[in-house]
Design goal:
The structure is a single chain. By secondary structure, this protein is of the alpha/beta class. It is 58% helix and 11% strand. The chain has three domains: 106 residues, Response regulator (Rossmann fold, 3-Layer(aba) Sandwich), CATH 3.40.50.2300; 144 residues, Reverse transcriptase/Diguanylate cyclase domain (Alpha-Beta Plaits, 2-Layer Sandwich), CATH 3.30.70; 158 residues, no CATH class. The chain is built from 25 helices and ten strands. The strands form two sheets. The chain has a five-stranded parallel beta sheet with strand order 2-1-3-4-5, sandwiched between helices. Strands 7-8-6-9-10 form a five-stranded mixed beta sheet, with helices on both faces. α13 packs antiparallel against α14. It is found in: Cytoplasm. GO terms for molecular function: DNA-binding transcription factor activity; sequence-specific DNA binding. Its main location: cytoplasm.
Length: 524
């Protein structure tokens, strides 16, 4: 609804105008009335009506004086002058004072409807034009920002050479390349935060106070920062970015992480960008909210050889014993080994975690259990894993998965007698190298040996001893695939102290001696 103010000293005329037509049907709403030009002026300031119906001859201040005062003060509603026949020429001259129209008293219904309809059209046309203009201005502004930021990004990455850009173009896009030294920083954070103009203003101001010039190219998840300053700028940059990260965390509860290059000259931007990329990748070890300088990251040593199979076995052993603290302790050990490497590339970290999960999934699937179903998500999805880009985040994610698996074993009782057969089977699969005869199982899980054997065969279709032996032989086959493994060592690793007895059992199950099996698997 458009708004209307009526200004007239005759109460009968005001009441008549209010009731004369269906204002709502015309698209208007009467928001107030005034008795003279003075009151009318105050009402216009307060109510900001779009249309003012005003008489000319009124006490204290007449209608035309009120209109002139409004125009002088920058108030410009659509004025419609109400005038008698003897004031007609006077009213016509008022049209030159930006009065939209006039109505002769007594006002005819159709004339009022026609005048208000014309004014409504003007209002809506003006609003549409203003909206179109705002859209155009916004598009131009966005286009300017887009092109400028694209230019900054291409400069920082070395895709284009600074010398190939005309000076006029740099001036137009407000890009100054006259600093003595430069650094490139990559900024990672929430996409919504990176796109906020206020963040850019805050960072620009904070760095300018330290004598650092910022050119920023924003992205969905990573922003590119081209920083210019004096020769000794690296400390100021690091401290400035740390201050920005801390303030954003304090004020908004959001995390910003920076990877920062060393300083160099304008022609070295491509190398500086590479350094910033490598520094940001080290977020895996430093954690979110860090300012990671390229000069502080260690060189890749290549000496770390992760053994996820053994960690998986120990994790599942803790799960089988319902040992929550043991699960967390083993995960701490696993990630502690990765952390101590200090330089493992992030893709190798993800690969190592994938191998750990593979071993867990494999062991449980051999028991007929689907990990994805147990935990309620596809744990093999690399996309889900890569959502966690720090060691702490990966550790928490794996802990959640394993705790859900542990919860299943905590709940999974055999209905007959209440024995935890899934727990016992998992215990067998993770303690096959130990002496786990029936007496050990009986004491460990508080179950009568003869009754356990009966329930176990009913569930698995095999005797306890045959099932355990098959686990040990399967593991031995895996180990024998390594040509450097010794048969006597493997025998001990899978629970056989006597190598000769191990060879007999192995041949009975596979039709080959351990040595022949190893040769068949490693001859190529």
């Amino acid at each position: 609804m458009h708004t209307v103010l009526i200004v007239d000293d005759d109460a009968m005329i005001v009441r008549g105008l209010e009731q004369f037509v269906d204002w709502g049907e015309l698209g208007f709403n009467i928001v107030g009335t005034a008795r003279d030009g003075e009151e009318g002026m105050e009402a216009i300031r307060k109510l900001q009506p779009e249309v003012v119906l005003t008489d000319i001859q009124m006490p204290y201040k007449d209608g035309l004086a009120m209109i002139e005062d409004c125009l002088r003060d920058g108030l410009s509603p659509h004025f419609v002058v109400l005038t008698g026949f003897n004031e007609f020429e006077y009213a016509r001259r008022a049209l030159k004072s930006r009065v939209s129209d006039y109505l002769l008293k007594p006002v005819e219904e159709q004339e009022l409807i026609a005048v208000m309809g014309g004014i409504r059209t003007q209002i809506e046309r003006t609003a549409k034009t203003k909206e179109d203009w705002n859209v155009l201005q916004s598009a131009v502004s966005e286009s300017f920002s887009f092109v400028r930021e694209k230019l900054v990004r291409e400069l920082a990455t070395g895709e284009i050479s600074p010398s190939s850009i005309e000076d006029e173009r740099l001036v137009y896009y407000n890009i100054r390349l006259a600093d003595e030294r430069y650094q490139v920083a990559l900024l990672q954070g929430e996409a919504q935060l990176l796109g906020d103009d206020k963040l850019q203003e805050f960072m620009t101001s904070a760095l300018e106070k330290r004598g650092i010039r910022l050119h920023l190219a924003r992205g969905d998840a990573i922003g590119t920062m081209l920083l210019g300053g004096e020769r000794d700028m690296e400390r100021d940059v690091t401290e400035g970015l740390a201050d920005i990260s801390g303030k954003v965390k304090e004020w908004l509860g959001l995390t910003l992480t920076f990877g920062v290059s060393e300083s160099g000259v304008l022609t070295e931007l491509k190398e500086l960008y590479r350094q910033a990329e490598l520094a940001l990748q080290h977020k895996m070890f430093r954690g979110g909210g860090s300012v990671i300088a390229y000069g502080t990251i260690p060189e890749e040593s290549g000496e770390y050889s992760p053994v996820p199979q053994e960690h998986a076995r120990r994790l599942l052993a803790a799960v089988s014993e319902n040992d929550e603290a043991g699960v967390l302790s083993e995960l701490d050990d696993f990630f502690g080994e990765i952390r101590r490497s200090g330089s493992l590339p992030s893709h190798d970290v993800y690969r190592t975690c994938s191998e750990l999960l593979y071993e867990v999934r494999k062991a449980l699937s051999e028991m007929g259990l689907a990990v994805d179903k147990l935990v309620g998500e596809d744990v093999s999805s690399s996309d889900k894993m890569r959502r966690h880009d720090t060691l702490e985040g990966l550790c928490d994610w794996l802990a959640t998965i394993l705790q859900r698996v542990r919860a299943h074993f905590d709940r999974s009782f055999e209905h007959t007698g209440g024995e935890q057969l899934d727990n016992i089977i998992l215990y067998m699969r993770t303690h096959y190298a130990d002496n786990i005869d029936l007496d050990v199982i009986s004491k460990k899980f508080f179950i009568d040996p003869s009754y356990f054997c009966k329930v176990f065969k009913k569930k698995t279709g095999e005797t306890y001893l045959h099932y355990l032996t098959q686990i040990r032989i399967d593991k031995a086959c895996q180990l024998l695939s390594n040509p450097s493994s010794k048969v006597y060592e493997i025998a001990s690793l899978v629970g056989y102290e006597d190598q000769r007895y191990f060879s007999q059992v192995f041949r009975k199950h596979t039709g080959m001696t351990p040595s022949d099996y190893q040769k068949s698997k490693t001859k190529n």
